[in-house]
Amino acid sequence: MQGPGLSEGDLAFYRENGYLMIEDAVSPEDLAELQAVARDFIDRSRRVAESNDIYDLDEGHSPSNPRLTRIKLPHKQHPVFDRVLRSDRMKSYFTALLGPDVVLQTSKLNTKAPGGGAAVEWHQDWAFYPHTNDDMLAFGLMLEDVDEANGPLMAIPGSHKGPLLSHHNNGVFAGAVSPDDPDFHFDQAVTLTGKAGSMTVHHARTLHGSAPNRSDRARLILFYEACAADAWPLLGAGSYIHRLPQREMWADLLERMVCGEPVLEPRIEKVPVRLPLPPAPDATSIFKTQKSGGARSAFAA
Which positions ≥6 away from 218 have C-beta within 8 Å? Predict the structure, then answer.
């Protein structure tokens, strides 16, 4: 099935490069509601002093200056995020890229604050949660205009076809690649900017990252990460699903089905895998993993 706005050329570009940009990915009405709810969450974070099950706080957060890195699992925090995820429009993108049976891996609303909001160091999502096959991707829906000043997503074309780079440092999983890795080609990176309502797509093995937000504007991007339903997670990742008893895991899987039905015969492909173990001292978020794991920054210069 081919989604609205996704031509055969779009799909071929994604398969070749490991990323794609979709303009006007949601309706103006949905975009306005998502923006309003996101801003309300940020405003309510003024009453929060420590990171919790909803918020990851950035350095310098205070009641007068709310600074967040992330709102966790937004599809569980407010119905609008779940409704947009399951809209016919979004489902058409999922099925065009992943097939008829699609399961949500996770969601997050990255809320990179103005004036130095935290960078996300270069990494491959695949390193965090390897599966039996790599039909996995992330949608990044821009809730604000994103330009080169406010820390846009950057990706290296074709890197999804290459090796899984080491994300370890000093014997622990640091959640980022070394800037000195010979297979990391920063000079080949492209910058993915766009107007609010645009949406990036990147493959789970695509190398990507984003610099600090040096502008005076927020950078709000809603991420939906999903996979084909016949891609089953390997034990060892940090997702909450690995802590669930069997019956609760099944109920949770049914809730995360976006399209089609669960697949009980995993498709096993020859894909590069290295488990994200042992974990960094603080593995509660990618930001804490990279910081406590001593990840080196490619953006430092």
Answer: 42, 111, 112, 113, 114, 117, 144, 150
d(CA 202, CA 283): 23
Supply the DSSP symbol for 84: H
* Nearby residues of 112 by Cβ (< 8 Å), 6 or more positions away: 69, 118, 150, 151, 210, 212, 213, 218, 219, 220, 221
Query: Which two three-digit tokens encode residue 51?
Result: 């990171």
Query: pLDDT at position 214, please?
Result: 87
Instruction: State the Cα torsion 263-269-271-277 to the nearest 10°.
Output: 50
89-93, 191-195, 197-201, 218-222: least confidently modelled range? 218-222
Integer CA distances (angstroms), 61 to 1, 40, 75, in order: 45, 16, 24
**pLDDT tens-digit profile of 226-238?**
999 999 999 999 9
Are 93 and 131 in contact, with CB atoms under 8 Å apart? no
- Comparing C-alpha atoms, which of 263, 276, 277 is closest to residue 231? 263
Q: What is the pLDDT of residues 23-39, one digit of tens each?
A: 999 999 999 999 999 99
Which CATH code is given to the segment(s) 8-292?
Answer: 2.60.120.620
110 close to 223: Cβ distance less than 8 angstroms: yes
Sign of CA dihedral 34, 37, 41, 43: positive
pLDDT digits (tens, 9 = 90+) for 255-282: 999 999 999 999 999 999 999 999 999 9
DSSP 77: H
In the chain, where the domains are located: 8-292
Cβ–Cβ under 8 Å, residues 212 and 151: yes
d(CA 250, CA 246): 6
pTM tops 0.85, yes or no = yes
How many other C-beta atoms can be found within 10 angstroms of the C-beta atom of residue 267?
14
